[in-house]
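Protocol step 4 of 6: structure prediction from sequence.
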Amino acid sequence: MKGLVDLAGEFETRQVHFRSLTDGIDTKTPVGRFFFHVMASLSQMERELVVERTRAGLGAARKLGRIGGRPRRMTRGKMESARQLLAGGMPPRDVARNLAVSVPTLYRWLPAACIKFRFLSSPPVPVDVFETQTWYVPGARSQSRQQQ
């Protein structure tokens, strides 16, 4: 409401007046300014009542055990299934597909220790780079990138 009253005051200093053609409100007159402020106050009160009722409703729902928001895709059962599938050697991409979740969701819910390099689709291959033997691990980042 303060913003609305400030805006009306700024308009008044610039000699700009609000006139509603359908409601008969004209801020050029004292009665029109009074009515404008009364309507703004009623609007603010209604908004505060809506907020109060919403908070009360959320609190009552919380007491009944309801949680608002979007349902989680990763349930406790899916997490346990994911752990078992990963322990059995299934790649994370296949685990995510089987559980109908995205790979980032799988990584978000399971600690990194559960998902190790043993789940690579192909074994590491030795590669000679600059006359030194290094290992190329598909999907893994090189050590030089990890240090940066």
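Step 5 (inspection) to follow. The chain has two domains: 2-63, 76-141.
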